[in-house]
Amino acid sequence: MEKCIIVAIADNNAIGKDNALLWHISEDLKFFKRTTMGCPVIMGRKTFESIGRPLPKRLNIVVSRGGFNAPEGVEVTSSLEEAYTLAERRHPSVMPASPSAASGYPSTMPGPSDIMSLSPAITLSEAGTSPAPCAFVIGGGQIYAQAMSMADRLIVTHVHTFIEDADTFFPTIDPAVWKVVDRSETLHDEESGYDFEFVEYRRF
Length: 204
Fold this sequence. Notes:
The protein has 204 residues and is an alpha/beta fold. The chain has helices at residues 26-36, 45-51, 80-90, 124-127, 141-147; strands at 2-10, 14-16, 41-44, 60-63, 74-77, 134-137, 153-159, 168-169, 178-183, 187-188, 195-203.
């Protein structure tokens, strides 16, 4: 199982403030859902609390050293290493359709037409038993920092703005370690006014 990170970052690597996202870009949120659907998602306690509920049709794993009462549908581990082990052992595969080469999105990632059409009545256990191909770390800052040395792949939404008053940042993506293997066209979000693009990195 690949170890993947998915994140949206500003040009100064900002990712959050006061345990909240820095922007609301509808296409990025849809992209996140399409990309992670059917795969384990690993996060810290604060990230889970900011989301407020388990993400559906994904194995939700929270890394917490204590003091966290997991709701139904959420697994808790004390370390990122344990989270990866749990993801590999426990999760059946529910994968979205193959990406469309004409979508304008990176060819290895789902595009706008590749939306999951799984009925809410179908459970993960009914959908398949083969291991999911990737476990996604989805935040926050401390978990991202730990995951960088273990990750095989980064899926990054680069939001072209600087957020000077952010309090949470993503680690620097070292070009000596990571190479760009796919990049979308530059897109524009009317609501926020930001330009953004989806970029996939793989470890050399």
